[in-house]
From TrEMBL:
Sites where the protein binds NAD(+): 11-16, 36, 89-93, 130-131, 164, 275-278, 345
SUPFAM superfamilies given in the database record: 6-phosphogluconate dehydrogenase C-terminal domain-like, NAD(P)-binding Rossmann-fold domains, UDP-glucose/GDP-mannose dehydrogenase C-terminal domain
Name of protein: UDP-glucose 6-dehydrogenase
Keywords, ordered alphabetically: NAD, Oxidoreductase
Domain UDP-glucose/GDP-mannose dehydrogenase C-terminal: 331-449
UniProt xrefs under Pfam families: UDPG_MGDP_dh (PF00984), UDPG_MGDP_dh_C (PF03720), UDPG_MGDP_dh_N (PF03721)
Domain of life: Eukaryota
Keyword Transcription applies: no
Catalytic residues (positions): C275
Pathway, per record: Nucleotide-sugar biosynthesis; UDP-alpha-D-glucuronate biosynthesis; UDP-alpha-D-glucuronate from UDP-alpha-D-glucose: step 1/1
Gene Ontology cellular-component annotations: nucleus
Stated family: Belongs to the UDP-glucose/GDP-mannose dehydrogenase family.
């Protein structure tokens, strides 16, 4: 028929949706269908109210949807049609059983493999797009091999490196695309077939091929290295607050060394998102499994430092506000785990809100993209509290329609996500509307602290010492 290659992607989430939309946009002769178990999710992908917020995504979807990009819940039918099946389902940290709290649960990946083996009527290339423990491809290969139809399946690993908020740019011009496969002639041919899809828009020298295990492992290592940089600079932010050094000056000075590089050295209230913690814990658990306890402990420190940073932030808020926030209105600007996304998985804001709630504060949250229901479902999943189990929570946390409403009459403002719009708010107006002394806690170092102090605020920021506390020589 009219298509060169047919792709089915299992999992229409933050990765499956944008990744497939970009493949479809860039390769008009490739038919791409994204399938999911969740009917609501698929229905949303078929409207202009997409299920996720990502700058530029709607335009890409509109270019290709109905042409060579489809969203469907007909999982069997779409697998049968496809030459290449991507597995792009969630692989969350296990919450119970062996390795609970550390190991990644690959049950969804295994289920996909079982479905593929069951419904396929022709040979296929099966691509692991989900982030998985090293050697998961072996499990997938064995499940696929058990089909009783004599079909051949080649398993590839093709981890995704996109970051939320910049997914479209990341997919349209990635630093690299990584494809791992078996080194047999069939494996190499399968890798070449997938590479030729990417080669429609990505220069060949950026398409890297490796063996399966290197590919699976590289994804965990990339996220561990990135998160480690954030924890490293965050550890230094604590030292700065105690010594009079300024963490932004340190990031600049250290990052100008080409060997270190300047990116991912932005001190913060802590890293969040669905990947960093999960993938490091996955690596930690793998190291433990192979008896490499020192390696496990080394990487575990990155997560521990992040927990410390989040806790340190809420404790500092309480300490500076005369050791009590009970009954005080506190404004939280930003709830997403980073700007330009509505995603709240593992967001540091959630941990700060939880701590302030425990102190009896009245919390008003404003975020331009986060839905109240998503806030609660993530808090229930991660912290085990929700308005259902804890009716006072609903009354204690208000979601505000805008930043000014969130700040009106409050004792303090905490900036927890680096949304651009927070930089240009009218802080004179906010100051006037607040209780005095008016505090600002800048958890992302995006505001002009000198200017805020001129207005009258008491400002505390990450890794920025109190200007009156240390003498300038
Ligand atoms: P997600 O939760 O947003 O989406 C996963 C989707 O898979 C859900 O819609 C779910 O209904 C669907 N699903 C689950 N089991 C299924 C099955 N058996 N058949 C069909 N659909 C099924 O998850 P995500 O953020 O897209 O992440 C997917 C994978 O990609 C994870 O392994 C993650 O670690 C990895 N990853 C995520 C990011 C990111 O930025 N979110 C980046 C790189 C890699
Ligand atoms: C990350 C990886 O960057 C991406 O390659 C991978 O595919 C998925 O995981 P993501 O979690 O979407 O992407 O966002 P990222 O930009 O990496 O930010 C993660 C967290 O670290 C955010 O909470 C962010 O605010 C924080 N961060 C990042 C910092 O606190 N300081 C920094 O300098 C950079």
């Amino acid at each position: 028929d009219e298509y060169d290659v047919k792709i089915c992607c299992m999992g229409a989430g933050y990765v499956g949706g944008p990744t497939m939309a970009v493949i479809a946009k860039m390769c008009p002769r490739v038919r791409v269908c994204v399938v999911d178990l969740n009917q609501k999710q698929i229905d949303a992908w078929n409207t202009d109210e997409l299920p996720i917020y990502e700058p530029g995504l709607l335009d890409v979807v509109k270019t290709a949807r109905g042409r060579n990009l489809f969203f469907s819940t007909d999982i069997s039918g779409e697998i049968q049609k496809a030459d290449i099946v991507f597995i792009s389902v969630n692989t969350p940290t296990k919450t119970q059983g062996i390795g609970a709290g550390r190991a990644a649960n690959i049950k969804n990946c295994e289920l996909c493999a079982r479905t593929i083996a069951e419904v396929s009527t022709t040979d296929k290339i099966v691509v692991e797009k989900s982030t998985v423990p090293v050697r998961t491809a072996e499990a997938i290969r064995r499940v696929l091999k058990c089909n009783d139809k004599g079909l051949n399946f080649q398993v590839l690993s093709n981890p995704e490196f996109l970051a939320e908020g910049t997914a479209i740019d990341d997919l349209e011009s990635p630093d690299r695309v990584l494809i791992g496969g078996s080194q047999s002639p069939e494996g190499l041919a399968a890798a070449e077939k997938l590479a030729s899809v990417y080669a429609n828009w990505i220069p060949r020298e950026r398409i890297l091929t490796t063996n399966l295990w290197s590919s699976e492992c590289s994804k965990l290592v990339a996220n561990a290295f990135l998160a480690q940089r954030v924890s490293s600079i965050n550890s230094i932010s604590a030292l700065c607050e105690s010594t009079g050094a300024d963490v932004s000056e340190i990031s600049r000075a250290v990052g100008m060394d080409d060997r270190i590089g300047k990116r991912f050295l932005q001190a913060s209230v802590g890293f969040g998102g669905s990947c960093f913690q999960k993938d490091i814990l996955n690596l930690v658990y793998l190291c433990e499994t192979y008896g490499l306890d020192e390696c496990a402990e080394y990487w575990n420190q990155v997560v521990k430092m992040n927990d410390y940073q989040k806790k340190r932030f809420s404790e500092k808020m309480v300490a500076k506000m005369f050791n009590t926030v009970t009954g005080k209105k506190i404004s939280i600007l930003g709830y997403a785990f980073k700007k330009d996304t509505g995603d709240v998985r593992e967001t540091p804001s959630m941990f700060v809100v939880k701590d302030l709630y425990a102190e009896g504060a009245r919390i008003h949250v404003y975020d331009p993209q986060v839905k109240r229901e998503d806030m609660w479902s993530e808090m229930a999943y991660t912290c085990g509290i929700s308005p259902d189990t804890d009716p006072k929570l609903d009354a204690a946390v208000t979601t505000s329609p805008d930043a000014y409403a969130a700040c009106e009459g409050s004792h303090s403002v905490a900036i927890l996500t680096e949304w651009d719009e927070f930089k240009t708010l009218d802080y004179e107006k906010i100051y006037k509307s607040m209780s005095k002394p008016a505090f600002i806690f800048d958890g992302r170092n995006i505001l002009d602290h000198d200017k805020l102090r001129e207005i009258g605020f008491e400002v505390h920021a990450i890794g920025k010492p109190d200007p009156n506390a240390f003498d300038d020589l």
